[in-house]
Amino acid sequence: MREPKYENVGSTEPDKAGVGDVGPMIAQKKVWMMNTGRSQTWLSAFVVALVVTLGFGLAGQALAAQPTPWQMGMQPAASPVAEQINSLHNLLLWIITAITLFVLALLIYVMVRFNARANPVPSKVTHNALLEVAWTVIPILILVVIAIPSFKLLYFEAEIPPVDLTVKVTGHQWYWSYEYPDNGGFAFDSYMVKAEDLKEGQVKLLSTDNPLVVPVGKVVRIVTTATDVIHAFYIPSFGVNVNATPGRLNEVWFKATAPGTYFGQCAKICGFDHAYMPIEIKVLSAEEFDAWSQGAKKQFGANDTKSSTHLAALTTDTTR
Ligand SMILES: [Cu+2]
What residue spans define the domains of the chain? Predict the structure, then answer.
């Protein structure tokens, strides 16, 4: 990143003529014009820095679906919900940047124009109807602009489309277990691979011995619960973050848009090894997923690692 050039800016001229100067008005006016010029140069330097930073942020989005060193932006979206989350985030970023720059400009203007030296006799005005209406109505309009996509996104997340596959996710201290109730009924545990056991291509602190596997382009319903304390199932690139609470079931959905490996982590401080219960999700094509399911049924079918929390069967009791 190139440093903005400030060499011509740090003139001591205003200071020399500044504090304690009781010269004629014209001289003072000149000083303030010079100070304003310096503010503008700083402002443009700030804008350049901001644009460069945002540029890095956008470049960061083109990387893998896992945290990367010096990542600035969000992880690339790999589900419709995550796409909408990212676009809402980007909209908010523009709005907050504009508001921040506007407030900064107002502050600089007030400091330069209305300080005691530039404005020795302050105005006694306390009301300005037009201004007061404007600074009430404009923020309301901004909030309405934010609220519309925000509510749309909330409903989009909350309403689960017709489901192709259900995975029950159970949080434990400190690992996850996954169960496929409508696709063979098998279940397995998923532990982090320790640093000393990492194989080629595995990611430290994120890879697991048994990743969660789902098909691409299918609506996957995630049902979460936990056996001990509250955990949270968090996969940034799918826009999924849902609590896994003992004795309760929470639902969330995603539809992976591209095959690949995606990583998440427990997002609820859940005890000693909270940081070591990562989530690894492999998204496969439909055929690869079917082949994997067949193997998994054999591998995990007779395995007694099913989670201890089971969905209660619905019964109709007519005697009550
Ligand atoms: Cu946890």
Answer: 13-119, 165-300
pLDDT in tens, 223-269: 999 999 999 999 999 999 999 999 999 999 999 999 999 999 999 99
CA proximity to 286, closest of 192, 214, 182, 219: 214
Q: How far is the CA of 55 from the centre of ligand 1 (A)?
A: 34
CB neighbours (10 Å) of residue 261?
A: 17
Residue 263 CA to ligand 1 center (angstroms) comes to 15
Q: 139: CA distance to ligand 1 center in Å?
A: 39
> Which residue, chain included where needed, has tokens 């921040």?
100
CATH number of 165-300: 2.60.40.420
Neighbouring residues of 208: CB distance < 8 A, sequence distance ≥ 6: 176, 190, 191, 192, 193, 278, 279, 280
Measured in whole angstroms, how far is the alpha carbon of residue 313 from the centre of its chain?
37
Q: How far apart are CA 178 and CA 187, in angstroms?
A: 5
**What is the 246 CA–ligand 1 centroid distance (Å)?**
12
Residue reference for tokens 């017709």: 162
**pLDDT 10s digits, 103-112:** 999 999 999 9
> What's the gap in Å between 244 CA and the centre of ligand 1?
8
Distance 22 CA to ligand 1 centre (A): 67
Element housing 264 (H / E): strand 260-266
Residue 96 Cα to ligand 1 midpoint, Å, equals 33
Ligand 1 midpoint to CA 129 (Å): 54
Residue with tokens 């006016």: 29
184 in Cβ contact with 175 (< 8 Å) = no
